[in-house]
Amino acid sequence: MALKALDIYKMLPKKNCKECGFPTCLTFAMKLAAGKADADACPYLDDATKALLHGATRPPIQLVKLGVGERQVPVGDEIVLFRHEKAFYHPPAILFSVSDLWDRDRIVAAAERVMTETFPRVGENLRFNGLAVRNDSGSAEAFGKAVGVVEEVAEFPEVLVSASAGALEAGLARCGNYRPVIHAATTANHAQIAPLAKRFGCSLVVRAGGLAELAGLAKACADLGVRDLVLDPGASTLGEFLASSTEIRRRAIDRSDPDLGHPVYLDATGFAPEEAAIVTGILKYAGIIVTSVLPQGTAKMALTLRQNIYTDPQKPIQMTPGLYRVGEPGPDSPVLATVNFSLTYFTLLGYLEASRIPCHLLIVDTEGFSVLTAVAAGKFSERLVKDSLDRFQVAGQVNHRSLVIPGYAAPLSGRIEEVTGWKVLVGPRDAADIGEFLEKEWVEKGRAIRAGP
Ligand code: SF4
Fold it and tell me: Which of 291, 293, 287, 295 is nearest to 278 (CA)?
C-alpha cells in the first residue's frame, strides 16, 4: 500500500538536519510520498524502515531506461490500469529482431532502418527504437560478431537474446559502454545470467511461465543485485499473454505483488498473425515489443497506434503555434487564422492543399481547443489574434492586410478588425468549403493565382 506523507513523517527521526537535501523532515516526507525522493537520502533511518519506505514509495511499476543518450527510451513507471483514469506515460520500445545467422548486409540494413526511418505524424517524428539480436546459431563467436555489426551502426537500445551466458558475454564484450538489455534469465540459468547483468550494469529480462514463478524469479534476480528488471511471462498464445500482462499490471498497480512491479516484455514474432500481437502489446501493457523487420504498412500501423494510445486523453493533440506555409505562398497570398487543435489543422490543410491556392496559415495557441470550443471558452480572442500576428511577424510576409478567420469565429470579426487593424474575411464553417471560398474571395477578385495546372 502507498503511504501518505503524514505516515511517512511519523517514521522519520525529525532532526531537520537537511542532510537529505530537503529543508525539513516534513518536506522530505512529502517528496517521498510523491515518489520524488529516495529513502536512502536520510542517513538516520534503519534498514527495516528504509525497506518499508522503498516498498511503499517507489512507483508501482519500475522505470527502466533502455540505452543511453538521445535514443534512450524510458519504459514502465505507469500508474493506472486504464488509460482514461489518467494517461499512459511511457510508450513501449519497439525493436526489430535480427539473427546472428544473417549476413552482415542484412543486419546493417535493419539497423539503418532503425537509425534513419521516421514517420512524421501530428507534429511528431515516429520511429522504431532499436534491435534485438538473437543467438539462433548457438555459437558465442557468431553472436559476438553479429552484435559487433550492430554496434558499428547502432546508437540505439539493443536487446541481446540468448539462453547462454557464454554467448551473452561474447555479445556484451562488443557493446563497450553501451549497455543493452539481456534476455533472458530463467529458473534454470539465472544463477549465471543475473551476475552477468550485474557485472555489465545491464537491465535483465526474466522469463517464466506462471506469475508466481515469474515473481519469484524477479525477486531472486533482484536479490542477486540486478536493479532494472523486465518481465517476460513466457506466453505460448496471445490469449495467455493478454491474461498474464493484464494480471501483472493489476497486481503492480494495487501493489499486491511488488515483485511484479516491472515493465513487461513481448516477443511478437512468436505469434501469428504478428500484427495482432503488436496491437495487443501496445494496448495491453507491454514495455518492450520485439517484432520482425516490419514492412512499411505494418510499421506505420504500429507507430500510429502507439502514438494514439500514449497521448494524454485529457489533452488534445496540439500543433505548435506559428505561421505555416501551404504550397509556395507569396506576398499576395491569403492569410488564414485558425486554432492549434491538430485535427482542425490537418483537416484544413488537406482542403487547402487540394484547392492549390498557396497561402499562409496562422496557427494561434488555443491550448488545443477546436474552433467552436475555443470561441465559446474565450480562448480564441481578438487579443490572441493580434498577439499572434505580431509574434509571427505576419505583416512582413504579405503586401495586404486581409485575414480569413473560421466561420464559427464570425462573432469576433468586428473586434478582431478593431484591435488588429486587419480587414477580416469570415471563412466558411466547414473546412471542406475553404477551396470554393478562396476561389471566390481571392482568385476571382484577382488577389492571387492558383498554383500549377
Ligand atoms: Fe530529517 Fe533525515 Fe532529512 Fe535530516 S536527513 S532532515 S533527519 S529526513
Answer: 291
The C-alpha R_g of the chain, in whole angstroms, comes to: 28
Mean pLDDT, the chain, whole residue set: 93
Task: Compute the distance from residue 246 Cα to the ligand 1 centre, in Å.
Answer: 39
How much distance in Å is there from the Cα of 19 to the middle of ligand 1? 6
pTM score, whole prediction = 0.78
Q: Which atom of ligand 1 is nearest to the CA of 29?
A: 8
Beta-carbon contacts of residue 292 (< 8 Å; ≥ 6 apart): 96, 97, 268, 269, 274
Contact 162, 333 (CB under 8 A): no
217 pLDDT above the threshold of 70: yes
Q: Which atom of ligand 1 is nearest to the CA of 43?
A: 5
Interval 396-449: pLDDT, tens: 999 999 999 999 999 999 999 999 999 999 999 999 999 999 999 888 877 655
Atom 3 of ligand 1, residue of closest alpha carbon: 20
Residue type, 142: A
Instruction: Point out the ligand 1 atom lying closest to the alpha carbon of residue 19.
Output: 5
Pocket of ligand 1 (CB under 6 A): 12-13, 15-20, 22, 25, 28, 42, 44
Q: Is 142 exposed, middle or buried (0-12, 13-18, 19+ CB in 10 A)?
A: middle
- C-alpha pair distances (Å), 238 with each of 16, 241, 282: 53, 5, 13
Residue 224 alpha carbon to ligand 1 centre in Å? 30
DSSP state of 159: E
